[in-house]
Amino acid sequence: MPRAEGLLFDCDGVLVDSDEAVVQAWESWAAEYAPGFDFARDIHQGRPAADTVAELVPSQDCARATRALMQLEIDSAPMVRALPGAAELLPVLPEGTWTVVTSGVLAVARARLSAAGLPCPKDLVTADDVRHGKPAPDPYRIGAQRLGIAPVRGVVFEDAEAGVSSALAAGIGLTIGVGERGLRTQAHLVVADLRDIRYDGIMLDLRKAHILRHREQAQRPTTAAP
């Protein structure tokens, strides 16, 4: 069982299933702002939505287009559901030992967590908090700071390569991919979902988790720092 001083969770694809809501929001948005947009082709999982908007619309329209997309994402939030294990794990985690680090903006993150019936940590990190989003190290570096831990003593749960790259660049000790998308990342370890994962604030118990991929380096996570 790896030792860890804090857990950092991506939101979409890790804690909540927002795929249907995301597609609906983007397609509704594209009908007005980017008629040639193709979700499967143009979306890079884990990147801030504003970065994609900036690539699709003229610069003078970016602010208005981004606000419109945010509202559509909030409107579609009732479609979001918790992913397996999230509703069982989060409420029993020791207070102050975990947070959420998402590429979404604060209002959207809160709306999706609420719709899924999941707690929302007060210190979550969103696109509103960083100058450079995933895959830059800023999001997970700030997340570790807010938990008051050295990055190497943290564990990140991610489903997107941009998020895993962000965590690795920030110096996070152990990255855990989640789900089928997690298999397409460079995460040290990949689990099917959050079911049967336990954490007491010191030890992360993965013995009963459904492991999809296990690498040797996952055996030496957060012990590098003295």
Descriptors:
226 residues; alpha/beta; two-stranded antiparallel sheet; 10 strands; disordered C terminus
Structure notes:
- Helix content is 35%, strand content 14%.
- The protein is built from nine helices and ten strands.
- The chain has a six-stranded mixed beta sheet. Strands 2-3 form a two-stranded antiparallel ribbon. Strands 8-9 form a two-stranded antiparallel sheet.
- It is globular and about 50 Å long.
Helix-strand makeup class: alpha/beta
The arrangement of helices and strands along the chain is: EEHHHHEHEHHEHEHEEEE
Annotation field: number of helices? 9
Would you count the extended β strands for me? 10
- What coarse outline follows from CA principal-axis ratios? globular
* Major pleated sheet: 6 strands, mixed
Strand content: 5-15%
Strand order of the largest sheet: 4-1-5-6-7-10
Alpha-carbon Rg, integer = 17 Å
- Which ranges are low-confidence, i.e. pLDDT below 50, for 5 or more consecutive residues? 217-226
Arithmetic mean of pLDDT: 91
Our measurement of the CA-to-CA distance between the termini, rounded to an integer number of angstroms, reads: 18 Å
Query: Helical content, roughly?
Result: 25-40%
Task: Explain briefly what this protein structure is.
With 226 residues, the chain is of the alpha/beta class. 35% of the residues lie in helices and 14% in strands.
Task: Give the SSE layout.
Blueprint: E1 6-9, E2 16-17, H1 19-33, H2 39-42, H3 49-56, H4 62-75, E3 81-82, H5 86-89, E4 98-100, H6 106-115, H7 138-147, E5 154-158, H8 161-170, E6 174-178, H9 179-182, E7 189-191, E8 198-199, E9 204-205, E10 211-214
Parallel strand pairs: 1-4, 1-5, 5-6, 6-7
Antiparallel strand pairs: 2-3, 7-10, 8-9
Helix pairs in contact: 1-4, 3-4, 4-6
